[in-house]
Amino acid sequence: MIRTLKITFVTLVGVMLSACSMVSQQPTGASVSINNDTELALPLPAELGYSLTASQLISATWETDTQQLPVQVEVTADKVVLAGFSSWGTRILSLQYQNQVIDTQVLSGLGATLPQPEQVLFNLMLTLWPTEAWTQPLQNISWHLVDTDNTRTVFDNDQQAIIRIEYQAKANEPKLSGDIVFKHLIQGYTITIQTLNSTIVDNPSKS
Fold it and tell me: Where is the signal peptide (predicted)?
């Protein structure tokens, strides 16, 4: 069974929204919750090292249930903008990360069934931002990551592997040229990110 994605990407802690239209959530700052009592700071948009626009299909599988969320992503030197859509093309969630502030919107009535936009952002940044962008934020909570040519594994402060990311791009090709498989080894779900199209542009060098 395939329906709109409802599994959060790192935690199952959700914020239920109630209103009569597109409703803004309070900005949460440039961090995400990775468990009930730990906040992880996010790297800056510019630390990606290039500008990006992409259309992606995110599929999440947990036990026998598969759910999908089409996503549009834009990354520039100063901000990250993303939007998630229903299967009929309606925007159901959006996020902007700029000036170390995260501003999100979720279509009213869907807050309990959609992933938190901040967790979609975390998933995107953890898969694409380079190792050096994540080193300090992870060290601040005594976590770390290990990269190989086609994998990235995140370890917690007990040296337990928590997240494993597999890149299916060919050698010397951008990571987005192949599917990206994100596995949460503790919570037992798998997310597959399929990039339908993308444009990558180098950021201007600072003079």
Answer: 1-21
Q: Report which of 3, 191, 12, 6 is spatially closest to residue 113, judged by C-alpha positions.
A: 6
Q: Which two tokens stand for residue 44?
A: 């800056």
CA distances to 107, 117, 135, 163 from 83, rounded to whole Å, are: 11, 9, 27, 24
Q: Which domain holds residue 161?
A: 2-14+23-198
Residues ≥6 apart with Cβ < 8 Å to 159: none
Question: CA-CA distances (angstroms) from residue 57 to 3, 29, 60, 70, 97?
Answer: 13, 26, 10, 4, 21
> Which CATH number is 141's domain given?
2.50.20
Domains: count for the chain: 1
Q: Which of 202, 177, 176 is nearest to 77 (CA)?
A: 202
Identify which of 195, 205, 188 has the alpha carbon closest to the alpha carbon of residue 12: 188
pTM of the model: 0.81
Residue 145 Cα distances to 79, 126, 186, angstroms: 24, 10, 16
- Is the separation of the CB atoms in 27 and 33 below 8 Å? no
Report residue 144: phi and psi, to 5°: -155, 165
Residue 207 forms part of a structural domain:
no
Map residue 140 onto helix, strand or coil: helix
Cα(89)–Cα(32) distance, rounded to whole angstroms?
A: 27
